[in-house]
User: What shape does this take?
Amino acid sequence: MNIVLIPGFWLTGSSWSGVTPALARARHTVHTPTLPGKRAGDRALSGIGLHDHVDAVLEVVDAIAPPVVLVGHSGGGAIAWAVADARPAAIARVIFVDALPLPDGSCINDELPVVGDRLPLPDWSFFDDDDLVDLDDALRERIRTVAVPEPAAVATDAQELRDDARFALPVTIIACEFPEEMLRQAVSSGAAWASELARLERLEIVELPTGHWPQFTKPLELAQCILAAVDRVPV
Assistant: This one.
């Protein structure tokens, strides 16, 4: 199986290094793209938006044999969902890692501190306590060392979705900060931010209690969750 791991904000493809060995040992082919504006040598970020990140992952998907499993962490979940919308016939499953499918017309996060054309990783005090569970000083330093600024427009551009075929795709949410019960209640109560969840035909929620960066805090457990979801892909 081809598995595409999409990094979240401030992270490159190398952020999955603790997860990929277990996937490779299970004989999956793993792709870990680093997205535009976060590659070595990228400087001016003002012209890079959400569609550029979606297009970059579409290039990966179009170059490999289907079926493809998309895995998106945090803001990478919005990219995974847009790619699934654009290529539903090629996608076997979408896995959201501490993320949710972003509805059409909404943005990933317009409250992050902007510096010019970029979003630097904020001070840890910016984040909620739930984000930082299991993130000790050593891991915080590791993330800050590898973090790169995110192009500002990626966070604020509107998600664009066109094909309702995405709702028939199997979706797995690996929930780190929020329990399954909370998500189910949001769907049943008609919460606007859960509108995509409410229309999914096949949704499973797997709890992996930790903070917002499980690829650093619980990489082996995260890999096991991804493998279990991939194993449920019909052959």
Observations:
- The mean pLDDT is 96.
- The two ends are 10 Å apart (CA to CA).
- The beta strands are 2-6, 29-31, 68-73, 91-97, 118-119, 150-151, 170-175, 202-207.
- The longest strand covers residues 91-97.
